[in-house]
Amino acid sequence: MAVTEPGDLSALRRELLRGLVIPAHPLALTEKRTLDERRQVALTRYYCDAGAGGLAVGVHTTQFAIRDPAIGLYEPVLRLAQRTVADWCAQPAVPPVMVAGVVGPTAQAVREAELAASLGYHAALLSLSAFRDVGNREALDHCRRVAAVIPIFGFYLQPAVGGRVLDRAFWRDFLDIEGVVAIKVAPFDRYRTLDVTTALAESGRKDVALYTGNDDAIVNDLVTPFPHSHNGQRPHFTGGLLGQWAVWTKRAVEILGRCRAVTANTPGAADGDEMRRLLALGAELTDANAALFDPAHRFAGCIPGIHEVLRRQGLLAGRWCLDPHEDVSPGQLDEIDRVLARYTHLTDAEFVKEHLHRWLS
Description:
By secondary structure, this protein is an alpha/beta fold. It has helices at residues 9-18, 37-50, 74-88, 106-119, 136-147, 168-174, 190-203, 218-223, 249-263, 272-293, 302-313, 332-342, 349-359, and strands at residues 21-23, 54-57, 97-102, 123-126, 152-157, 180-186, 209-212, 237-242. The chain contains 13 helices and eight strands.
């Protein structure tokens, strides 16, 4: 069922539980580091035509600096994405689930949530980076305040890029919030990933979807049946909300489909050979992600790495970021060259080449 009304919470839950590819939307800039509206629209059209089931806008990949009053791009970028989806993706495809990044102290987060809701966004991806030095109680109160405005994605962001450790007790209490519709699990850590899956199993909730944000373990997350609780409920990831899926999105849709077929025991797809093929593909995707996300330099080149791939495909004019000092790290371009040459089956270059003129029109 299409998610057509932001207030249709049951339809939103069904879509998220069905399993979606949700790219984290980049920010297209001119050489003068102003919004390149034509290419921003082209990116949104690309994701729609590639089969993405949702879009996350105003998130880390969109660059947090869009909120700087001197830049003032948070509302324009959210508004532009929503308008483009309404114009380009409404028929005949199912309109994507629209997720807005929401950050900052409670007053700021509530304002951003209210704006997102007023623009027709279905949910907020709620960052707790502003609550790194407080206890669970204060962080949970913040989550409740935002969830009273708009349905929320919980977000376990890895501490290396601004997140905080969120223990199992936090997630268990977080899952008592009625407005929670999903959790993006992105600690890049299997122990901490298990804290979330275990909390979900123990909560007994079946209406909250797990979305992988572990760009280093995408396929592993999607095919793993996680430990169940005493009631027999075994959590699993239904989709992903990922910066990695901002590139090669058509292939991401295909990979998610294969993972879903295996985990659903679809005839002909659940054999051991297909699982081994998927795990091998997952390792290749992790290798490619290392080139784009730049873990060798503590992810400093993550956003420029994504931009570089989109630039080579013609979707972006350059890899410019709002911060003029933010660029690829030493050796990162060589790594991108390597993975593009080695893993051509992970890319969707031909699809982009075929349709780029339409998206830029």
